[in-house]
C-alpha cells in the first residue's frame, strides 16, 4: 500500500471517529420544564472533553461533563468509553448516582492504561422535586447561580474515574428553584490565559455567568465563550466545554 493510500485511510478513520464523537455530544430535545444547552470547542479534530444530556424516567434529566487525561485520539477514545459506560450504568443504578459512578470507575480502571483517567461531573435533575443530585469525580466544580444572587459550588464526589480501583463515591444534593442556573465546564474554560499569562479562573466564569444570568441557556453558553475569548484574545490551548441548565 502506498504512503498516500495510508494517509487517506488514516484521514477517513479520523473523520469517522470525529463523527462518532460529535454524535455522542448531540443535544437531546429540551423538555418543557427545563432549558439547557452546551458546547464543546475542541483544539484539534478529536478531543478529550464531552457533554451529555439524557432524558430519564419520571421527567428527570441527567447531565454529564467530562474531561479525559491526555489529548487527541487516546483521550477521545477514553472519554467516549466513559460516556457510554455512564449511559449504560444509568439503566441499572436507578436513582443512586454514587453507585453509578463507583461502577463506572471500576470499569474504567480495569480497561484503561495506568496513566489514563477522566474527571467527570454527573448530575440528575428532578424538576418535580426541584433537586439536583450529583457526583463530582475530580472535575472542575460546577456552580449554581441562585436567583437571589448567591453562588453554590458543587464539589462532593471523589477522585477522577480510572485513578483508583476501589474508590467509593459520595453523592451531593442541591435545591434548584425557579430562576436558578447550573453552569458546568471543563478546565479548558477556567484555565484559559490572556497574553500576559493571567488565568481567567473561576472568578471570570462566575462574573460572566452573573452578568448574563437572564439569557436563555443557549445565550448564556454564547456569552461565556465570548467573555472567555475577550479575556484571552482568542487564545485556546485546551478543549473547552460549557454546559448550562436553567430552571424556568
Number of helices: 6
The CATH topology annotation reads as Phosphatase 2c, domain 1
CATH C-level class is Alpha Beta
CATH-wise, what's the superfamily? PPM-type phosphatase domain
| Arithmetic mean of pLDDT | 87
Strand content: 25-35%
- The parts where pLDDT drops under 50 for at least 5 residues are 2-18
Q: Indicate the overall shape.
A: globular
Report the order of strands and helices.
HEEEHHEEEEEEEHHHE
Distance between the termini: 58 Å
Query: How many beta-strand segments?
Result: 11
- How many structural domains in the coordinates? 1
Helix content: 25-40%
Return the CATH architecture.
Answer: 4-Layer Sandwich
Class by SSE composition: alpha+beta
Short description:
This protein has 248 residues and is an alpha+beta fold. It has six helices and eleven strands. It has one domain (32-246): PPM-type phosphatase domain (Phosphatase 2c, domain 1, 4-Layer Sandwich), CATH 3.60.40.10.
Amino acid at each position: 500500500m502506498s504512503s498516500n493510500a495510508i494517509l487517506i485511510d488514516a484521514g477517513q478513520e479520523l473523520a469517522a471517529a470525529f463523527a462518532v464523537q460529535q454524535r455522542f455530544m448531540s443535544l437531546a430535545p429540551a423538555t418543557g420544564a427545563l432549558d439547557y444547552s452546551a458546547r464543546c470547542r475542541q483544539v484539534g479534530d478529536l478531543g478529550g472533553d464531552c457533554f451529555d444530556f439524557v432524558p430519564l424516567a419520571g421527567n428527570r434529566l441527567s447531565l454529564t461533563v467530562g474531561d479525559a487525561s491526555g489529548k487527541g485520539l487516546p483521550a477521545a477514545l477514553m472519554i467516549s468509553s466513559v460516556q457510554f459506560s455512564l449511559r449504560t450504568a444509568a439503566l441499572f443504578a436507578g436513582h443512586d448516582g454514587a453507585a453509578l459512578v463507583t461502577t463506572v470507575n471500576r470499569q474504567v480502571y480495569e480497561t484503561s492504561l495506568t496513566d489514563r483517567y477522566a474527571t467527570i461531573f454527573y448530575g440528575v435533575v428532578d424538576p418535580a422535586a426541584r433537586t439536583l443530585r450529583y457526583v463530582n469525580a475530580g472535575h472542575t466544580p460546577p456552580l449554581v447561580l441562585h436567583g437571589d444572587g448567591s453562588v453554590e459550588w458543587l464539589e462532593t464526589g471523589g477522585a477522577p474515574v480510572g485513578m483508583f480501583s476501589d474508590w467509593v463515591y459520595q453523592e451531593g444534593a442541591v435545591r434548584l428553584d425557579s430562576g436558578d442556573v447550573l453552569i458546568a465546564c471543563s478546565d479548558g474554560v477556567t484555565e484559559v490565559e490572556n497574553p500576559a499569562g493571567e488565568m481567567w479562573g473561576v472568578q471570570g466564569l462566575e462574573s460572566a455567568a452573573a452578568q448574563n444570568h437572564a439569557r436563555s441557556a443557549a445565550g448564556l453558553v454564547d456569552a461565556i465563550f465570548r467573555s472567555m475569548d475577550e479575556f484571552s484574545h482568542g487564545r485556546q490551548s485546551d478543549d473547552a466545554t460549557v454546559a448550562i441548565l436553567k430552571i424556568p
